[in-house]
Amino acid sequence: MDIATLIDSPSELTDSAGSKTAIVLMTRVRLARNLDRRSFPGWANEQDKAAILETCRAAVASAPAMRRGLNVALADLSDLERQILVERHLISRELSGAKSGAGLVVSRDQAVAVMINEEDHLRIQVLRSGLQLKRAWNTINDLDSNLEERLDFAYSPTLGYLTACPTNLGTAMRASAMMHLPALVIAGQMEKVVRAVNQLGMVVRGLFGEGSDASGSIFQISNQTTLGEAEEEIIKRLGSVLQSIIDHEVNAREKLIESDAGKLFDKIGRAYGILQNSHMLSSSEAMNLLSLVRLGADLGVFPAEQRSIIDRLLIEAQPGHLQHAQRGECDPSQRDLLRAARLRTEFANFGRPEFSPSRNGNN
Amino acid sequence: MDIATLIDSPSELTDSAGSKTAIVLMTRVRLARNLDRRSFPGWANEQDKAAILETCRAAVASAPAMRRGLNVALADLSDLERQILVERHLISRELSGAKSGAGLVVSRDQAVAVMINEEDHLRIQVLRSGLQLKRAWNTINDLDSNLEERLDFAYSPTLGYLTACPTNLGTAMRASAMMHLPALVIAGQMEKVVRAVNQLGMVVRGLFGEGSDASGSIFQISNQTTLGEAEEEIIKRLGSVLQSIIDHEVNAREKLIESDAGKLFDKIGRAYGILQNSHMLSSSEAMNLLSLVRLGADLGVFPAEQRSIIDRLLIEAQPGHLQHAQRGECDPSQRDLLRAARLRTEFANFGRPEFSPSRNGNN
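Structure tokens for the assembled complex are given below, as produced in the milestone run.
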């Protein structure tokens, strides 16, 4: 598969059909791995990096999970292609800026992505739409075992997997979920949730990880520690934290409807009206409006099956995807016109909202 | 005609069919008159005021223009009824607060209203939709002549008509137009217009006259001076100032479309989308949104015949009318829900916007 085919195929994240819990948009597990006795990417010289890249690309691409997928050197991708990969959460912002020596292997269904020579030699990640922590873990565990047969990983019996940054030592695993928490945001309860989650050893971040903001009321929750706890244990603990956040969000939604349905419906209605009629829309405003309409779909204001349209637009309304659809790069103000035009078209045939407090509560 | 019948009949202002110039919503001429050798209302005792009220009501109600109209003492009107009369520009805010001794006579078509014992014994006014200064002047001139046959007005050969406030001395006439100037507001040119208009001896005020704000980009332009100039001369001079403001507004609209059609269409589209989908709407936000949709109708974004729907809603979305339609008073937050519900219903079948820069320019 080449990059053009990948881009024209839907992202795993737009397939929310299999998701039982709409509040969790996506589950992700990633492992950091490094080749034994080879310099970490930050220390390696160009020649070392090139050799490591070659070894890793060959090993990863031949794993059964990655067959007929994408296998590229980052240097061969345009800026726009890199941006699209970031927007699909297939590569990190750091890797998208890589000049040389970096590579990427993506499975055909876009659920598995392996970054080469990012901070570590290998960053293996599995994405699954909705809440599918165990399934994501099983997939990544199988791939890791497969790679271990052909690559010699840096491993210490006392410290576990060795990584470029000491915070990843041990399991070198980070499991996370991308959650849609509009009611907690509207009710002003996110700060409280973040504190509680931190006390349980988990971290809350914005949509694109560390240092990014939570536009669209979308947050990433992930484990903080990688040392002294088995992978399955971390996955289980994260799962129960996620369930507790889901319960709080559901509760916050019910309270909002009980205490001030008019205000909530007003927000959802206006968001829909603006998406259907605006002529200039920034990326961040679009995310926030789509987020409110998504909440509407959860509450029965819109048919539940329309949620997948919104999930697709949450990705396709972003700058890279938008420019790709227009076959060319353009400046931000031009993008805002294109984004509004695209969303007007998408929402022209979107079902009209039906507000009735009794329809809510199906999460 | 009783007050209930008046309220249930459409205001003269909603009949914009006869108006060639949509930018002028309404033309108004008013005359202040006082009975000779009787104390002004501010000085008169209760007994005097009652006698003046009786004399004036009888004389005005028997004028041909006022036949089968409304003839009431303010004391007999509820707060809500008074508020509705203010919203239709039939009485002033001052008169609506009158406790006793004040009266009102309104013609059957709601184009002529005579306030009794407001600041002067008689405040005679004629309203006409659109730009109809001469027609308004002819109507009021006829009524004034008719009243003069039966009432003895305070008049000085050197000062003209005597009035409670010296600023009205002379003709005691104020002619005004209510203008819709959204493009001048968006382009930030209103301050310049106000200065120029002032230099020509005219005054710019908000929607409800002195001290009110210009929500919905609606302004009142009127003559400042009443002394040393004949009525016809004032009317003529005001007419040419109005025409010049119309030209500036038309020009500002053309420039906005040329320079940034996207931004203008964005404002109009969002206003329409919010009116169609909001669930909470304050009076002032509703005015501003309706104002933008009205601009859209002027520019061909909506069919021109829908402008009369907006003109009606500019009056009916106000607090008094809204509460009357719901058959009872309610608090402001409840009103905001009712207003949004009313506008959702009205806009559900409003034609969808069609944006095309070439359709503009029909003012």
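The first strand of chain B starts at residue 24 and ends at 33. Chain B touches chain A through 20 residues (CB under 8 Å). Further analysis is deferred to the final report.
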